[in-house]
Design goal:
The protein has about 500 residues and is an alpha/beta fold. The protein has three domains: about 80 residues, no CATH class; about 200 residues, 2-Layer Sandwich (Endonuclease, Chain A), CATH 3.30.870.10; about 160 residues, 2-Layer Sandwich (Endonuclease, Chain A), CATH 3.30.870.10. The chain contains 19 helices and 18 strands. The strands form three sheets. Strands 1-10-17-16-15-11-12-13-18 form a nine-stranded mixed sheet, sandwiched between helices. A seven-stranded mixed sheet has the order 2-9-7-6-3-4-5, with helices on both faces. Strands 8-14 form a two-stranded parallel sheet. Helix 2 runs antiparallel to helix 3 and helix 12 runs parallel beside helix 13. The two termini are about 25 Å apart. It is a multi-pass membrane protein. It is found in: Cell membrane.
């Protein structure tokens, strides 16, 4: 808190100095003094940035921003550039999360990984060692494709709820789909079912106070995640909850890429068809997924639901492989580490579908090396993205990937939003995390890592169907793109460290 007060003070001082220099007729010596003090603030900030030992390209980017953009560069850095602030802002959450997950581990019996093949065992062992959660075997998973199938399943499961319903979404709109879900939730409350809804304050900015009041009056307990406060120097707004979770009676769980809004049903004319993937799971892994929700709920409102045994009771289900729920965020290890470990475990193939492909250097290298070793590497991204910077920043990585022999496909049917990685046809990741720096460093995310389940074959079949709706980007064709496009890519790549 003291640090943020100093930063706020520095901004006011810098504005005052700039006003003296540009908008007053004071003698030159006073203007020179203001310029000197301004330089001292920027220099000390740059030195502190260098001491963080970030990747060189990120350090240079923020140095240029601080030096070349008077005042605004410093404000931008305060809000978006200080990753070190994560440890201060989310210290209490990190400690609370660790205590609960350690308690869960003590209740679970270690799984025998000896029957897995070599690369499955290595990756599963890695996750066991570095995450706070455990593998689950007594879990059934079912892949849901696109919005219509997903929300049909969600509505059916919600209407069958008997005890409680917990929902957590990045984006929850009060459109036709959102209203349908709220009507179901309201009906369940009237039947005595507890309903809690948590939404991200930025992702669900269109959800008005009147919408929230209506849900509260209906008996739905509603909480925003990290609401935007009027204090302008509050830095929490840059860290968002990107998770999509539903837990019903501790028996059923949903996770994947779909938020609540009619665009996810393909009903937005500007976006068109929406290609996405979700998962419904039953069994012991639901308990871990529920723990993620309960900890987030405690963080936003202080209610300790996990003290009640009925919220934390595992309900086993017959499964055919291993399922591992892994939550990441500003308070934990980056998802990029898990993606890197998954990619480097490959021996035959790596298939990736993601709407935003802005990888760090480690993942770039892992993919290039895999392709040069003869491993099949396929990447599907949307033909048209929903932002200028993300569109051209993604394209800026194509040349080196194409040179390494990686197959890149541009999805043509609509907007591809799924986040799926499939390795060797028997390992997979599906969840909320994109292959970009925001998902790696700033967002709260949650993924399922699947080992040897039948669901992996469903994901692979859907991936191949998506390939049929995609155009392969050929090196010769891509290299003929115009100079204007190359300039856009180069410009957008400068911001890849903060996208």
């Amino acid at each position: 808190m003291k640090r943020r007060h100093f930063e706020f003070f520095f901004v006011l001082v810098m504005i005052a100095f700039c006003s003296v220099v540009f908008f007053t007729g004071l003698p030159f010596k006073w203007k020179a003094l203001c310029i000197t003090f301004y330089g001292v603030i920027i220099l000390s900030t740059v030195l502190a940035l260098w001491l963080e030992n970030r990747p060189a390209q990120n350090t240079l980017l923020w140095t240029y921003i601080l030096v070349l953009l008077p005042v605004f560069g410093y404000i931008f850095y305060v809000y978006s550039g200080q990753l070190v602030v994560k440890g201060e802002l989310f210290k209490s959450k990190r400690m609370s999360d660790r205590r609960l997950f350690e308690a869960l581990r003590k209740k679970q019996r270690p799984l025998d990984l000896s029957k897995l093949n070599d690369h499955q065992r290595i990756f599963a062992g890695y996750l066991e060692r570095v995450t706070l959660t455990d593998q689950n075997r007594n879990t059934k998973t079912k892949i849901l494709r696109n919005g219509e199938e997903t929300f049909q399943e969600i509505k059916q499961r919600l209407m069958a709820a008997k005890d409680y319903i917990h929902l957590e979404y990045y984006r929850f709109r009060n459109d036709r789909l959102g209203q349908e879900l709220v009507e179901i939730l309201t009906e369940k409350v009237s039947e005595g079912v507890e309903v809690r809804l948590m939404y991200d304050a930025v992702g669900s900015y269109s959800l008005s106070g009147a919408d929230r009041k209506k849900m509260l009056e209906a008996g739905i307990k509603v909480q925003p995640f990290l609401p935007i406060k009027p204090v302008w120097f509050n830095q929490r707004f840059n860290f968002r909850n990107h998770r999509k979770i539903i837990v019903i009676d501790g028996k059923i769980g949903f996770i994947g890429g779909l938020n609540v809004g009619v665009e996810y049903l393909g009903e937005d004319d500007k976006i068109g068809f929406w290609c996405d993937t979700h998962v419904v799971l039953e069994g012991e892994a639901v308990q871990t997924l529920h723990a993620v929700f309960l900890l987030d709920w405690k963080y936003v409102c202080g209610e300790k639901l996990f003290a009640d045994e009925r919220y934390m009771k595992p309900v086993p289900a017959a499964g055919d492989g291993h399922v591992h729920v892994v939550a990441t965020g500003p308070e934990t290890r980056d998802m990029s580490d898990h993606y890197f470990a998954l990619i480097t475990s490959a021996t035959k193939s790596i298939w990736i579908a993601t709407p935003y492909f802005i990888p760090n250097q480690a993942i770039q290298t892992a993919l290039r090396v895999a392709a040069r070793k003869g491993i099949q590497v396929r990447l599907i991204v949307p033909d048209t993205n929903d932002g200028f910077l993300t569109q051209y920043a993604t394209q800026s990585y194509f040349p080196e990937l194409l040179r390494a022999g990686i197959e890149i496909y541009s999805y043509q049917k609509g907007f591809l939003h799924k986040k799926v990685i499939i390795v060797d046809g028997d390992l997979a990741s599906i969840g909320t995390a994109n292959v970009d720096m925001r998902s790696f460093q700033l967002n709260f995310e949650v993924n399922l890592f699947l080992t040897g389940t039948e669901s992996i074959q469903d994901l692979a079949a859907q991936f191949e169907e998506d390939l049929m709706e995609s155009r392969r980007i050929r090196p010769v064709e891509f290299y003929k793109r115009g100079m204007a496009v190359k300039w856009k890519e180069s410009f957008a790549k400068l911001f890849s460290g903060v996208l």
